[in-house]
Design a protein that fits this description.
Blueprint: E1 16-22, E2 46-47, H1 57-63, H2 67-71, H3 75-82, H4 93-106, H5 109-115, H6 121-131, H7 140-151, H8 165-169, E3 171-172, E4 180-181, E5 187-189, H9 197-200, E6 204-206, H10 213-217, H11 232-238, E7 244-246, E8 262-264, H12 270-274, E9 277-281, E10 289-293, H13 303-309, E11 310-320, E12 323-332
Parallel strand pairs: 2-4, 5-6
Antiparallel strand pairs: 1-12, 3-4, 7-8, 9-10, 11-12
Helix pairs in contact: 6-7
Length: 341
């Protein structure tokens, strides 16, 4: 193959097997966000506890303690999480660029007409509800402060504004679509027989919600607020029914549904791939060894996940001076679109 590559070819691939001819194949990943100003809705997250409005970063840190506090006992979990994109859900250039675009959209006349007023802190919360869920307890002044810090890259001001330990482990199994936050000191998780508070340092409670994909859907889906970013949960639900596949070598075609050798694959939850089960202790000192889960949350940005997601077969169809035609057979083995999955 000769010549310079001067363009990108983005191919959206639904789960399954696809065969196509290409001269240049480049897999790209894209995450976009848009505000549907014609059907604008705002979102309020339900809280199961009465929490005083937080008016400063100091107030917020008292309720949503720094992950460094958790690292004292949960060292391995913290080290993994610190490398994840949850740890920098607000403090990264990609989110900043999309947030700036969103701020520009809020200034448009169409938005003012849709809202019947100037956009304010409630609209700023729409992105931050998922990228920094603790803002649901923040005053309008603090929300504006956080938004300004993101817009201008003042990361030191919002060091602990992120998807952190307390955010995920204070979501209770009771609640509506968005879940229910209970920042009362009790930590919720998938361990059915958690250690008592005297041993763990905080009350713990089993939450079946934390074991399934519904937990991830709180943010990774199109919610009642029309801000589109990560729809990976919706994509997975579109192919939720187990896929029947034929055993044997891959032939570049989907197995017939009625083929006798077809097997029914078990349905997996998000956590099965993105929170690998590990045999170790939940805390650094003491506690019994059990299956706990990685908090690295690997996804499309992690090269080690690519081989698990896509199976590629290349066949040279035609060769001529200065040109090569290649048949590319791609099997998407995951319940996500590629790219943007």
């Amino acid at each position: 193959m000769s010549g310079a590559i001067d363009r990108e070819v983005a191919v959206e691939m639904k789960p399954g097997v696809f065969v196509f001819l290409v001269m240049v194949l480049i897999l790209v990943s894209f995450c976009g966000a848009k505000a549907d100003i014609l059907e604008w809705k705002t979102m309020a997250i339900e809280t199961s506890e009465s929490v005083q409005v937080l008016d400063s970063m100091g107030d917020m840190r008292k309720v949503f303690v720094s992950p460094l506090v958790c690292s004292g006992c949960h060292r391995s979990h913290h080290e993994e999480w610190d490398k994840s994109y949850h740890a920098k859900s607000v403090r990264n250039a990609g989110f900043q660029a999309l947030f700036l675009k969103y701020l520009e959209d809020l200034k448009k006349e169409e938005m003012k007409q849709a809202l019947g007023r100037e956009a304010g802190p409630q609209e700023l919360r729409q992105c931050l509800f998922c990228h920094a869920p603790m803002v649901q307890f923040a005053s309008d002044r603090l929300v504006q402060q956080i938004a300004d810090a993101v817009a201008h890259g003042r990361w030191d001001e919002i060091q602990d504004v992120q998807i952190n330990c307390v955010v995920c482990h204070t979501i209770t199994p009771e609640g509506k679509w968005t879940g229910s936050f209970s920042p009362s000191g009790t930590m919720y998780g998938p361990i059915e027989d958690p250690a008592p508070a005297t041993a763990s340092g905080h009350p713990s409670k089993f939450s079946p919600l934390h074991k399934g994909s519904k937990f991830c859907s709180l943010c990774h889906s199109k919610g009642p607020f029309n801000v589109y970013c990560s729809l990976v949960y919706d994509q997975s639900q579109a192919v939720r029914e187990p896929v029947r596949r034929a055993k044997g070598p891959r032939r570049g075609r989907r197995a017939p549904q009625d083929q006798s050798r077809a097997v029914r694959e078990p349905v997996k939850h998000c956590q099965d791939c993105h929170m690998e089960g590990l045999g170790r202790r939940a805390v650094a000192v003491g506690g019994k060894e059990r299956t706990v889960h990685s908090h690295l949350f690997p996804g499309g940005r992690f090269k080690e996940m690519w081989g698990k997601a896509i199976y590629l077969t290349l066949n040279v169809e035609k060769v001529s001076p200065g040109e090569m035609q290649v048949q590319v057979v791609m099997e998407n083995k995951i319940p996500h679109n590629v790219p943007d999955g």
